[in-house]
Amino acid sequence: MKSTVRVIQEKKQIALVAHDNCKKHLLEWVKTHEDELSRHELYATGTTGNIISKSTSLAIHPMISGPLGGDQQLGAMISEKRIDMMVFFWDPLTSVPHDPDVKALLRISAVWNIPVAFNRASADFMIKSPLISQASEIVIPDYDAYLAERL
Question: Would you say residue 21 lies in a domain?
């Protein structure tokens, strides 16, 4: 498939997701970076979003719970270019019943070249990058060209 460039604006659309065993760690990370995160638009799966909303002053756009379709909602938003980056604290040592949904979310993030942090170290690198507060370009699939070739 051909590629094109997408400009991610200064104000990022950030998805926040955490497996049950990692919700506490994500909340700690969010509290540490609350000031920077307040400059961006935040989305989160159900339980994670509720925990963050109740524990911080951040405005969160909630999805439904991940196992009930929230992971898929975020995946759709990524493919619609409505999510710019994702912080997903996942537990690689615990199997979850909605594992196919998690894999689909990670796959669509890779397809659309969305930066994803899987743990505190990678999330720290992303939030402290100069790119967090400036416009930047990413290469994405050129879906319009793909459709034009099929007509």
Answer: yes
Q: Which helix (H) or strand (E) segment is 16 a member of?
A: strand 13-18
Q: How confident is the model at residue 93 (pLDDT cuts 50, 70, 90)?
A: confident
Q: Does the active-site annotation cover 71?
A: yes
Q: Can you give the residue range of the structural domain that contains 65? A: 12-135
Q: Is residue 76 part of a domain?
A: yes
On whether 32 is known to bind a ligand per the annotation, the reply is no
CATH number for the domain harbouring residue 72: 3.40.50.1380
- 56 labeled part of a ligand binding site: no
Task: Count Cα neighbours of 140 within 13 Å in the Cβ-side half-sphere.
Answer: 22
48 is an annotated ligand-binding site residue? yes
pLDDT band at 126 (very low <50, low <70, confident <90, very high): very high
- Give the C-alpha separation, 148 to 143, whole Å: 9
**Is residue 47 annotated as involved in ligand binding?**
yes
Residues of the chain with pLDDT > 90: what percent?
A: 84
pLDDT at 99: 86
Question: Which member of 20, 35, 71, 91 is catalytic?
Answer: 71
